[in-house]
Amino acid sequence: MRRALPACLLLLALLSVSAHGQDVFQEGTTITVELMNGDKLTGILLEADEPKIVIQHDIFGRMEIPRASIKPAAAKPVEPVAPWSGKADLSLTGSGGNSSTQNFRAGVDAKHETDEGIDTVNAWYLRNEDDHEASAEKSFAQYRHEWKLTDSKYRPFVQASYERDLFVDYASREAAAVGVSYPCIEGDVHKVTSRLGAGISYKSGNDDPDVDSTNYEALVGLDWLWTISTTKSFSFSTDVYPSINNVGDARAVSKAAYEIKVDPDSAWFIKLGIDHFYDTAPGSGTDRSDYNYYVGLGRAF
Length: 301
Prior knowledge:
Elements: H1 4-21, E1 30-34, E2 40-48, E3 52-57, E4 61-66, E5 85-95, E6 101-113, E7 117-130, E8 133-147, E9 155-165, E10 172-186, E11 190-204, E12 214-227, E13 232-242, E14 250-261, E15 268-279, E16 289-300
Antiparallel strand pairs: 1-2, 2-3, 3-4, 5-6, 5-16, 6-7, 7-8, 8-9, 9-10, 10-11, 11-12, 12-13, 13-14, 14-15, 15-16
């Protein structure tokens, strides 16, 4: 009980200091207060308590001003939060009867840009079935954050990615990288951004003793957007990762898409795309080059 009493007194003292620090009026400073009738008074603050404040006015001397007569300070305007924008697409094909096939792919590209930075997300999932047996199942997701610098076009970035393929010798690959990007072209028709950095990737569940699970790697990347017309656009993006600890090895993640809007003012569009993965050390029984192409319907948001 004796130990608890000093602790309670200390807590009360801290709360008292905190409450006093939250007062907008600080004793000993020169302040200007606006009264409810619109008059303004400037002077040195002598006292400030709950019912009133006391100032030393250059002309009127000591003045006691009830807080109830002081006009409350205007609240700072709340800046609206910039929304995410992007596109989502879906493709589905199938057949039945003598053969049964289903091909499904869903993807999303999202972007959030503020005065401080840019966040981008790219993710997709694909599954193909032949006679109710999976013939392909892949997924990929990547997040990147870029910081905007005040007096420079260079943008430092960090990124992380995850990829999974049901028909390779490892369960998944996780990767992370840091670097700097630079907007080379920022026109209405063409937008080109380059990237340079370094990172690490790890193959979870790797069963091939001849393939290193952990790779330290450089990063060279490029994004290109070509606005062909009000209804047509082409985009291409690639990230190449030359291995640092296994010189001569490299991997690449690329994608390309051609989009046709249903109408210039419509959010709906038809998308023809391809996702491509390349790895010089994919593991035994696995091709170096792996890709999937698709045609689907998408919507901007």
